[in-house]
Amino acid sequence: MTAGKDPSGRPPGDLGPREIEILKSVIEAHVFSGEPVGSRALQKGAGLDLSPATIRNVMADLEERGLLVQPHASAGRVPTDRAYRLFVDRLMGAPRIAAGFAQSLDEALEAHRGEIPDLLSEAAQQLSRLSQNVGVVLVPEMRRIVVEHLEFVRLDHGRVVAILVDRAGVVHNRILRVAEGFEQGELDRMGRELSARFAGQTITAIREAIALEMTEERAVYDRLRARLLALSRDAVAADAPSEVVVAGAANLLETPEFTDIERTRALLRTLEQKGRLVGLLERVLDEDGVQVVIGGENPVTGPSSLSMVAATYSAGDRVLGTVGIVGPTRMEYARTIALVDHLARTLTRFLTTPGA
């Protein structure tokens, strides 16, 4: 997302060196303290070789341009979403992750390599721990899964469990109810046939092929095969809702932004209603690189004082899901971007070569 023009009609990026220096200093001071930044404190804290009066004048100009706001008449100023967007797009340094953090993260994930649910849960925990914000991971959707193996096990006369193994090694179980029972031998033959025909294909492609065969003459006149095909179609249904793993919600409750009880309630509602996070994380699935959504840029996140940094992870060239960090708009964006990018790449490496 890009910033629009400011209220003065000038593009936000059209800043002089002094304005850039003061804006960056305000942002860095506010990220550190969470409090409004005054001109005198800024002069001392940032070591600016400018008088407080000059700093106040520049800050007033930045406020007029929609980059700073004064929450109270007697308070200092805080950056707006537009200021953070300008900072992320043009002013901050290159995102880099500290070697120690990268090693710690890789070792934590390595311990769960091959155990996909635990791996994704650990990824969310590590994002939360290293950022002191909220870690979120969008679990792969069924329709994005690439099937390696499919089999059926008879539970009783009216129930069959479909066992699907995807390319990443994740086992998916689905209990299917049937009007008439099957013999285990019939289920075994269908499982072998489907595995041989469809290994390496997506759930969506398999379902379409099965639906096509169900319309063909052989299936219409072979009652057993028609029933087995219907069972197979239900086994590869891609209608399961997306899931998101959330870790570290309590971290946000310790920040100055959420000392207000109403704002805290809004935050907790957002995190409890995971559909909001799923909606935002799914929007990242078709984007390349790390995506940054700041404050009110996306209403899906609920409170406008929240931002999200997210990136996709894959198995080979197939995108599976999204990892991200949710935190206050005053988060350390360069560090957060580097952390999310590194974790997404590590997950992709582990899922592409699960046993390596």
Helix content: 40-55%
Round the Cα radius of gyration to an integer and report it.
Answer: 26 Å
Q: What is the name of the CATH superfamily of the largest domain?
A: GAF domain
Q: Assign the CATH architecture of the largest domain.
A: 2-Layer Sandwich
* H/E series: HHHEEHHHEEEEHHHHEHHEEEH
Compute the separation of the termini in Å. 37 Å
The fraction of residues assigned to DSSP E strands is 15-25%
Largest sheet descriptor: 5 strands, antiparallel
Q: What is the global morphology? A: elongated
Topology:
Layout: H1 17-33, H2 39-46, H3 52-64, E1 68-69, E2 78-79, H4 81-91, H5 99-110, H6 116-131, E3 134-138, E4 147-156, E5 159-166, E6 171-177, H7 184-198, H8 203-214, H9 217-221, H10 223-235, E7 244-247, H11 261-272, H12 274-284, E8 291-293, E9 306-315, E10 318-328, H13 333-352
What does this structure look like?
- Helix 8 runs antiparallel to helix 10 (223-235).
- This protein has 3 domains: 17-91, Arc Repressor Mutant, subunit A (Orthogonal Bundle); 99-140 and 242-352, Beta-Lactamase, CATH 3.30.450.40; 143-235, Enolase-like, domain 1.
- The chain is elongated and about 90 Å long.
- A 5-stranded antiparallel β-sheet has the order 7-3-10-9-8, sandwiched between helices. Strands 4-5-6 form a 3-stranded antiparallel β-sheet.
- The protein has helices spanning 17-33, 39-46, 52-64, 81-91, 99-110, 116-131, 184-198, 203-214, 217-221, 223-235, 261-272, 274-284, 333-352; strands at residues 68-69, 78-79, 134-138, 147-156, 159-166, 171-177, 244-247, 291-293, 306-315, 318-328.
- Helices cover 46% and strands 17% of the residues.
- The protein has 356 residues and is α+β, with helices and mostly antiparallel strands.
